[in-house]
Amino acid sequence: MGEENKTEVKEFILVGLTENQQLWVPLFILFTFVYVITILGNSAIVTLIIKSPLLHTPMYFLLSNLSFVDLCYSSVITPKMLENFLSIRKSISFNACVAQLYLFAVFATSECFLVTAMAYDRFVAICHPLLYTTMMSNDVVLALVAGAYTGGLLPSVAHALCVFLFPFCKSNKVNHFYCDIPPLLKLSCNTSYISKAIVFGLAISLGLASLSVILTSYVYIISAVMKISSTEGRDKAFSTCTSHLTVVLLFYCTVFFMYMRPGSGSSEDLDKLFSVFYTVVSPMLNPMIYSLRNTDVKVALRKVITSCIHRF
To answer: 136, 179 in Cβ contact below 8 A?
Structure first.
């Protein structure tokens, strides 16, 4: 492609969720409410786990980090989306777009590794209860969390380089509500498929590796639980896993749909719908899923509330 067709992009125009102006204010109100609930819910989970000695266990330490990551990657996307609902010209600077894509990739990938670490924690707790304190020692748990964040940082550099290393020549109009990888790749001058191969190769390899560990863990967990003679014991064992499985299902179904399928013939409106779910809605639902179905969280919350009432 000739150099005359290549332009230095200084900003991008985000099309947003919809170009129907009549929906902008109602959507702004709706997603403001969702974002506030997301902030309050995830902040409450993190604070509760820090404050309550009952929740000072590896499982809840991992959960607090999951809530922190949910809070972060929702905050990378939602404020700009809300701003654009009230703006006529929905622009984002080139550097801000790079930062948004990179940070979202970091936190989304870190979440992938954290839910994997949580599956391993449940596997050890149910299949090797006598060795739990050894296999899930403080050093091991800290290593798992550090690995999750490191695993989020490194692949995200490759993602950002593959998207922004080449010039953009088709347009600066991104048919999305944030700087995501697929719509930006469509604007790139790079017509070889190297960037796409690297991006989707990383997504597939990391996603399938993580999912393989989770599925393997639950094969052993189900096998161990089915050997428990009492119904009460089986129900208690399964109850510690259902919340995690629900979060895994919500996360992987949407991510696999977005990043691990052929791009040809896909609906951009459908892509946006799935993106809304895992960037905005899922971070709001996760603390609800864990708090509503978790007895320890409910007990700890009641103790904190009672303590606060007694102080006043």
So the answer is: no
Beta bridge partners of 174: 14
CB atoms closer than 10 angstroms to residue 81: 22
Cα dihedral 221→224→225→231 (10° resolution): 180
Q: Closest by alpha carbon to 144, among 121, 165, 128, 123?
A: 121
Amino acid letter for position 194: I
Q: Are 198 and 105 in contact (CB under 8 A)?
A: no
Residue 203: closest CA among 119, 260, 264, 124: 260
Would you list the DSSP string of 41-65? HHHHHHHHHHH-GGG-SHHHHHHHH
Structure tokens at 243: 């919340």
| Identity of residue 242 | T
Which strands make up the sheet holding 173-174, listed edge to edge? Answer: 91-93, 11-14, 173-174
Q: What is the DSSP string of 114-180?
A: HHHHHHHHHHHHHH-GGGHHHHT-HHHHHHHHHHHHHHHHHHHHHHHHHHHSS-B-S-SEESSSS--
| CB-based contacts of 310, cutoff 8 Å, min separation 6 | none
**pLDDT on residue 3:** 47
DSSP 5: G
Strands (E), 238-306: none
The pLDDT tens digits of the residues spanning 208-262 come to 889 899 999 999 998 888 887 777 767 777 777 888 888 888 888 777 766 655 5
CB neighbour list of residue 226: distance below 8 Å, 6 or more residues apart: 234
Annotate 189-248 with DSSP letters as a single string.
Answer: S--SSHHHHHHHHHHHHHHHHHHHHHHHHHHHHHHHHHT--SHHHHHHHHHHHHHHHHHH
